[in-house]
Q: What sequence folds into this?
């Protein structure tokens, strides 16, 4: 339900922040952190998904989304699931790329899809852009009851026609990795948010050239905790009250490492082989562990 062609003609502004993430890697979390920093606190002028709508999502007319961003006079932070090689790149715009262990991405996406009312999504898409092309798109096969088979489908791109697959996640993160030495590209990680959110708030603030004390960073981090965000889900999650079966379930406590409960040795071997064939060893280590646990600093911030 996305189309990166919607970037064509979109006018970026000096000081814009583009949040470019694969799905289920901490997109909403990162939007929340940016909003807290830009507005210096939890009081926002509008719900988060109004301030930072997903530009690529085609359930809303493009003209409507462009008008929302065009009317904003505060520093804009723009949500996209398009990799950096598919969007305009400018030296005066900051690009925030967020990673997560792809195995956890897969599990989180399964819960995400189960929480969606697809009939309602299709109705919105039909009103926005029409559904005349649905017959030409690959059909998603029924999900197997066997988690090992689902992992195999996630790994094998040619078999997978779901929302996201392994090589898509890795390619997306690699487009940030290849540009990680640029002063306007910062790579963040879900595991680092989980391990030390106040420190990551400080790091993101430096990348955005926002002055902040350690005390204030800790206060803002508390506002971005899962419990706090769940309390104000209607103001935080994308499309709140629109097509989720349960708004609060969007912010599930998935964490990291859930995949260990069901992955087989054969499945892990296939997964590791695909990762090795797709990205460099240092990127693979960072993708699976994050900056803090791996000791790999993907970007120099500040």
A:
């Amino acid at each position: 339900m996305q189309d990166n062609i919607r970037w064509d003609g979109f006018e970026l502004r000096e000081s814009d922040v583009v949040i470019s993430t694969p799905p289920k890697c901490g997109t909403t979390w990162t939007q929340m952190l940016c909003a807290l920093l830009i507005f210096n606190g939890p009081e926002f002028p509008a719900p988060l998904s109004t301030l930072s709508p997903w530009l690529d999502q085609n359930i809303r007319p493009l003209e409507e989304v462009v008008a929302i961003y065009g009317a904003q006079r505060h520093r804009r932070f723009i949500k996209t699931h398009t990799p950096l090689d598919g969007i305009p790149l400018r030296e005066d715009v900051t690009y925030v790329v967020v990673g997560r262990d792809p195995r956890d991405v897969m599990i989180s996406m399964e819960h995400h899809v189960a929480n969606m009312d697809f009939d309602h999504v299709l109705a919105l898409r039909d009103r926005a852009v029409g559904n005349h092309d649905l017959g030409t798109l690959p059909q998603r096969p029924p999900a197997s009851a066997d988690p090992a088979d689902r992992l195999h489908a996630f790994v094998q791109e040619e078999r997978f026609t779901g929302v996201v697959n392994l090589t898509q996640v890795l390619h997306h993160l690699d487009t940030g990795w290849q540009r990680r030495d640029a002063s306007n590209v910062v790579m963040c990680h879900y595991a680092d948010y989980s391990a030390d959110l106040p420190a990551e708030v400080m790091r993101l603030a430096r990348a955005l050239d926002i002055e902040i004390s350690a005390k204030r960073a800790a206060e803002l981090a508390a506002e971005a905790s899962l419990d706090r965000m769940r309390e104000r889900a209607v103001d935080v999650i994308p499309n709140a009250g629109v097509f989720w079966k349960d708004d609060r379930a969007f912010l599930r406590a998935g964490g990291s490492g859930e995949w260990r409960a069901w992955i087989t040795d054969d499945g892990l071997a296939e997964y590791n082989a695909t990762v090795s064939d797709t990205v460099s060893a240092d990127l693979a280590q960072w993708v699976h562990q994050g900056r803090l646990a791996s000791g790999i600093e993907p970007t120099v911030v500040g």
